[in-house]
Amino acid sequence: MFALDATVTSEDPIVLVAADPHWPEEFRSIAGRLRLVLGDAALRIDHIGSTAVAGLDAKPVIDIQISVASLGAEGAYRGPLESLGYVLHAANPDRSKRFFREPVGGRRTHLHVRRAGSFDEQLNLLLRDYLRAHAEDRAAYARSKRELAERFRHDREGYVRAKEPTVWSLLLRAHDWLQETGWSAGPSDA
Fold it and tell me: What is the pLDDT of residues 7-57, one digit of tens each?
């Protein structure tokens, strides 16, 4: 998820960059290759995280959520993803997903494989769509992220934890928005 995802993958300094209008294109290119190897095993392939929200500053990492029928059926997705060079991080402590990183030397990409219909799958899509629709909250979140990135530049875990109150506040507003609009996840991005 945007900030509650406990996957800490690097000791590199936290660097946010201005929103890049090419991020959706990069996602589509990667997602096209994923769709080819995963076929029907991927019930959804979605661009999530800050790079999926136009105008939102972000770490330049393309986050992709792949929704599958069962996390336990690893053969349906692990082999195909590894055939593209993605690396499973088996030590990932988040039991709600399987986490893969980009191929060596590849474009920084995080693959979050989740069970279709799960709480986390839906929460990522709801927050993404809420931020896309609410410029004021998107701008406030960007300001908070920039401030925290400066404060926790060399403490990735501290950065993630420090964002939690802001993200939970956004999720409460997103829930109200869901109730007002009847939001549901639209079609898969790829």
Answer: 444 568 999 999 999 999 999 999 999 999 999 999 999 999 999 999 999
Per the DSSP assignment, residues forming a β-bridge with 98 are 113
Instruction: Spell out the alpha helix ranges (H) of 56-186.
Output: 78-83, 119-133, 135-151, 156-181
pLDDT at 155: 96
Place of tokens 């053969």: 75
Whole-angstrom Cα distance, residue 49 to residue 42?
Answer: 19
Distances (CA, A) of 32 to 37, 106, 180: 9, 16, 34
pLDDT digits (tens, 9 = 90+) for 73-130: 999 999 999 999 999 999 888 889 999 999 999 999 999 999 999 999 999 999 999 9
Pick the CATH number of 23-181 from 3.40.50.920, 3.30.460.10, 3.30.70.330, 3.30.1330.200: 3.30.460.10
